[in-house]
From TrEMBL:
InterPro entries named among the record's database cross-references: DJR-like_dom
Residue stretches making up the Double jelly roll-like domain: 74-393
Protein name: Double jelly roll-like domain-containing protein
Classification of source organism: Eukaryota, Metazoa, Ecdysozoa, Arthropoda, Hexapoda
Taxonomic source organism: Exocentrus adspersus
A Pfam match: DJR-like_dom
Length: 407
């Protein structure tokens, strides 16, 4: 049957004239000191403009210093690993803080990016599965803010008011670089490397609406109409060391409020990879895990044991849960994942979907606990990583310049 639209011969074409002009603006830090452990703060202090922060970019340029004869290269996602934390503030209120943005963005990339996304992010230092394109003494990264802060993936609306991006440099650069030593005449050289950041800039897209839309927005702002900001936060927790030689561990992660109740829990393990120039921190060890169980106030997820066996390449259930994350997270049918069954073994991420629960009996507080089991004793220097994906809801009063959490 033909659609009725096929006969709409006299329809008037609609032109999108809601945007009058688009400009890119560059902002610089107050203090140009980018050494290890330094805090870099970039502020946009204009309340009468509309900025598309979700399209924002961080430009980071510098050089690599090397001593020794070994080869030095950036790891994948090196730009994010240069910082120990990144914070986004609005009107002096913390909206989102990401600890270890290198780890968090790497895990989110494995879960949500496609091959085309990797090509697009090559200038950001992300180019999985290939080596980063920037592999010389000097580098220049252009990193989207949404790669580091998830609010700019979920809340794609222009913002106004005073806004700040705060970066804290890592205490060293060992997680950004990979050193391969050379052996000459039976002697292996000792190579060290570090990074000198010479400049950091924040590039923001400024949008000028048409007069009609601008008047409507200004009227709502003068009335101090509340702006609701919903997004999902990726909150990282770390257990510095599992019990060496043990095959079981219980990890009481946190006690949280009902509003920040976990929707998804992502678990990974790394053996001797932190601050090690000879190891790649974008790999996650499977450590022969057989089962991981999440407990929320006595309710267990998943409801059945996983029964994994990595020694026999029997981890289909873990990989299936990994591939099912994106359709559940985005409420769609499309599958988006970077790790196939073979590569998953060396980058094992264990996904627990707890987004479907009975909310009618929601308690005021929730205890979050992980039970970890392996077929062999945990290796020495093995740390556990857990990302809790939970809802965040804030209210912004644009005239009063007040931002507060909604519970």
């Amino acid at each position: 049957m033909l659609s009725v639209q096929a006969f709409d011969m006299f329809r008037t074409p609609k032109m999108d004239e809601s945007i009058e002009k688009v400009e890119w603006r560059t902002y610089y830090p107050f203090v140009k000191s980018f050494r290890n452990n330094d805090t870099i703060e970039i502020t946009i202090n204009q309340s009468d403009v509309f900025d598309a922060m979700y399209e924002g970019l961080l430009l980071i340029s510098g050089k690599i210093n090397k001593t020794g004869n070994g080869s030095v290269a950036f790891i994948n996602n090196a730009g994010a690993f240069m910082f120990s934390s990144i914070t986004y503030e609005m009107n002096a209120k913390e909206i989102e803080t990401v600890r270890e943005p290198g780890l968090v963005s790497t895990i989110r990339g494995y879960l949500c990016y496609t091959g085309e996304d990797s090509k697009h992010l090559a200038v950001a230092g992300w180019n999985y599965p290939n080596a980063p394109l920037i592999n010389y003494d000097y580098f220049n990264f252009l990193i989207p803010l949404k790669h580091l802060l998830n609010i700019f993936n979920d809340y794609r609306v222009v913002t106004c008011g005073k806004q700040t991006i705060r970066l804290t440099r890592s205490n060293n650069d060992n997680n950004c670089l990979l050193v391969t030593e050379k052996t000459t005449g039976g002697i292996t050289t000792s190579t060290t490397a570090s990074i000198d950041i010479e400049n950091i800039e924040l590039k923001i897209k400024r949008i000028y609406p048409s007069n009609d839309i601008r008047l409507k927005l200004l009227k709502a702002i003068r009335a101090d109409t509340p702006i609701i900001i919903p997004f999902r936060q990726w909150e990282l927790h770390m257990k510095p060391a599992l019990s060496e030689g043990s095959t079981k561990d219980v990890w009481p992660i946190k006690t949280t409020t009902a509003v920040e109740s976990p929707r998804y829990v992502i678990v990974g393990f790394q053996t001797d990879k932190h601050d090690n120039l000879n190891k790649d921190p974008t790999y996650f060890d499977n450590i022969n895990i057989t089962n991981i169980r999440l407990t929320l106030n006595g309710e267990g997820f998943p409801n059945e044991r996983m029964r994994l066996n990595f020694n026999k390449d029997d981890y289909a259930e873990a990989h299936y849960r990994y591939t099912e994350f994106f359709p559940s997270y985005m409420s769609c049918t499309q599958k988006r994942f970077l790790l196939d069954y073979g590569t998953f073994k060396d980058r094992a991420l264990f996904i627990i979907d707890c987004s479907r629960r009975d909310e009618s009996m929601k308690p005021s507080t929730i205890d979050v606990r992980l039970d970890i089991e392996a077929s062999e004793g945990f290796p020495a220097n093995t740390r556990a990583l857990c990302i809790i994906v939970h809802d965040s809801l804030l209210e912004h009063l644009p005239l009063s310049e007040i931002v507060k959490n909604l519970s």
